[in-house]
# Entry
Amino acid sequence: MEGSENRANSSSEYILEFRHVSKSFPGVKALSDVSFGIRKGCVHVLVGENGAGKSTLFKVINGLYKADKGEILFDGAPLHVNGPSDALQTGIAMIYQELNIIPEMTVLENLYLGHEIRGKKGPFLDSKKMMRQAREYLEEQGLSFNLKSKMKALSVAEAQMLEIVKAISSNAKVILMDEPTSSLTETEIEFLFKKINELRDRGITVIYVSHKMDEIFRIADYITVLRDGQHIRTVEAKDTSIPDIIEMMVGRKMTEVYPAKTCEIGDVRFRVENFNRPGVFRDISFELRSGEILGVAGLIGAGRTEIARSIMAMDPKQSGEVYLDGKQLKIRDVNDAITNGIVLVPEDRRRQGLTLIHSVADNIALVSYQHIFKSAWLKHRAIRELVDKMIRLFAVKVPSPSTKAETLSGGNQQKVVLSKWMSVEPSVLILDEPTKGIDVGTKYEIYKMMHQMCDRGVSILLIDSDMEELIGMSDRVIVVHEGRIRGELQKGEISSQAIMNYAVGGA
# Structure
């Protein structure tokens, strides 16, 4: 079903119709003459590489951006909204990839944010009614939260589930979901898909963005492919396949998902011995060799990230030692870890990996000021040369080094984070969910970069919830269950069944 074919049909069958929509930013044309329709009461998935225009289109629908050209019809009438609150009143709700929550507010306040219930008299909120309704609704959905606790007390997965409940409860005609499963367990994903099917059965349209091809084909009725801001094609999911979609996304045939790793694995480079933190992890010991990618598997809450943060001295530990090249290290803070050649690329790139309001150049150079140049004076020429080198090395698509990091696609933001940490030439690179929310083309680029790092002798600790990626990229895998290493798998032994057996506590 091509865009021209969409326009030939009656608009009445569409809940949303895009007619020649364009949107530009300085140096970037995010959307270019986009035209297609989205039918009522279906699950319509948008796919494309990072920077293809998916998030921009969502923000135009949601009123965060105004289109430069073209128009959008909502249920047959021109859509004019001035922000998310206005969109919600119109009948459009959105679940953001980066959670749209206020940590210091309570769960109840976040749940009703933007559509609070006011009392019959005066300007005050009816907290009792909101509390009663929230409890009833959560009970209907099979969920339980302490509504009086602050949002910051919830895990990422719990906060994500609450955002989904908030969107479902708004009685919207259209719900936009941007990478909603990126922080969810398999059980929570099944819960989400069940809710999506219920919404479709009620005639509500779900517009869904995901880079996970397997889940796209589980729920999609229609798939629209965007590339470089242009509408490539809209098809019924039953009439296409994963290879076809990937080819449309990247504009070329993908002959392999994971590049071949050719470097030799050397001697033991890095050791963690007897790491303990009561209630979080215990008896953690492992070795990592030069040029090796050691995968770390486990369910959400198993303690994988917490172990990595304690290695970096970002979180405390009760006991344990770290060795690099046979030498015991004294790591008192993050700067000690970096000085000794150990760096961590965090799971949440926007909140922990980047300073979004600063430029790409500032973000890349941030660590180098203290750990490369080691001077009270800024060496502008050397810094500029370093930034240009890293942008070329990691193929960061950016109009200029002075471009703000917040304007980049998720994949290019991740490349900036990798550039920042690789600029200090580490010996050990800890990657926590390195391709979360990144398209297949950019994932492949990052895989090749990981192998190039291994070629230079860098040892990589890969914490990953993507089972296929973990299997495809790891030389060896350790599996964490309830804060303990439950098992270790060599290259020939790694399989999803073997990993899950250990992950749930099996022998």
In short: Residues 247 and 253 are 5 Å apart (CA to CA). Confidence is low (pLDDT under 50) at residues 1-11. The chain has 19 helices and 20 strands. The longest strand covers residues 14-25.
